[in-house]
Amino acid sequence: MSFFRKxxxxxxxxxxxxxxxxxxxxxxTRNQFTSKVNDLVARFREIDEEFFEExxxxxxxxxxxxxxxxxxxxxxxxxxxxxxxxxxxxIQSVISEKLVEIYNAGEELDVRLNIQEDELTVILMVGVxxxxxTTTIGKLAARLLAEGKTVMLAAGxxxxxxxxxxxxxxxxxxxxxxxxxxxxxxxxxVMYDAIRAAKNRKIDVLICDTAGRLQNKVNLMNELxxxxxxxxxxxxxxxxxxxxxxxxxxxxxxxVQAQTFKEATNVTGIVLTKLDGTAKxxxxxxxxxxxxxxxxxxxLGEGVDDLQPFDTEKYVYGLFADGLELEEEILDx
Length: 333
Ligand SMILES: Nc1nc2c(ncn2[C@@H]2O[C@H](COP(=O)(O)OP(=O)(O)OP(=O)(O)O)[C@@H](O)[C@H]2O)c(=O)[nH]1
Known about the structure:
The chain has 13 helices and 8 strands. It has helices spanning 3-11, 16-25, 27-44, 49-61, 66-82, 91-104, 133-146, 163-174, 187-200, 217-234, 252-264, 283-291, 312-332; strands at residues 121-126, 151-154, 177-179, 205-209, 241-247, 269-273, 295-299, 307-309. An 8-stranded mixed beta sheet has the order 3-2-4-1-5-6-7-8, sandwiched between helices. Helix 11 links the parallel strand 5 (241-247) and strand 6. The protein binds guanosine-5'-triphosphate (GTP). Part of the signal recognition particle protein translocation system, which is composed of SRP and FtsY. Its EC number is 3.6.5.4.
């Protein structure tokens, strides 16, 4: 049985709906990338150096990242040699297998949220303006509520006009309280208030919004460090998560942002938003290679339930779904 079929059997069944979300969310990338791979396979039939060169080009176009592409091509060449494989039929399944292997190789990255059992969990949300931070906080709150947690939000982006109101709207939508002060006030003071309120009301998870000013790294660092200090003084071990929101549609620029935030604060996980809005969904693999920070959630659409925990196999399935299903049918005949 091909790798792809085994993977499909493993991930579908009990959670078909989530698998479908990955499939739908990655449609743009699949339409660009996989359909071109399928064309390539049809055009070449026989595996040769030129085939690998064109494949390499397609992977680079999908923003997979140079190192990962090189590694993948090397591994494919080895596998083809090992199996004495001469024709291109079924190569997509081998590519998907190698992508999963490469993603999962190296240090194990835990995608689960670090939620405390019996005490307040504090999640800090960081990222530049416009990446979908507020939206993500709203979606995350809804997800945690659905899991039976009580949730509170802290409007720590006191800098951008409208950020507080926007968070309040999300809070109302999700039915959770938002702790706020006026625009321009000290974000650390908002955090302090929010932690006090969350403790008083015995809340499980407090999600804190922050301003995402990147223009000045020193300022960003100072502000985040001050927030950190206040939070850790009030709750031991907090913040339990620092989630960095990155917009997948900004491609390599997202990697640059990530590097800056990584230097400014201890980022524990990435939320990759708007993955459905890009044809360059290979950015997930580049993030893995460049940053070694787990992508904990991906945004696969605008709906509340379109924020999904990242899953390597569902992701790779989403990248290849149609082409491989077609191929499976052909092989079955
Ligand atoms: N298609 C899609 N849209 C998303 C996703 N995440 C956020 N959005 C949309 O992006 C828009 C808001 O994006 P932003 O303006 O970047 O969000 P924001 O939360 O105000 O931005 P911040 O300044 O980062 O707080 C909204 O229309 C969201 O629905 C996603 O995963 N997929």
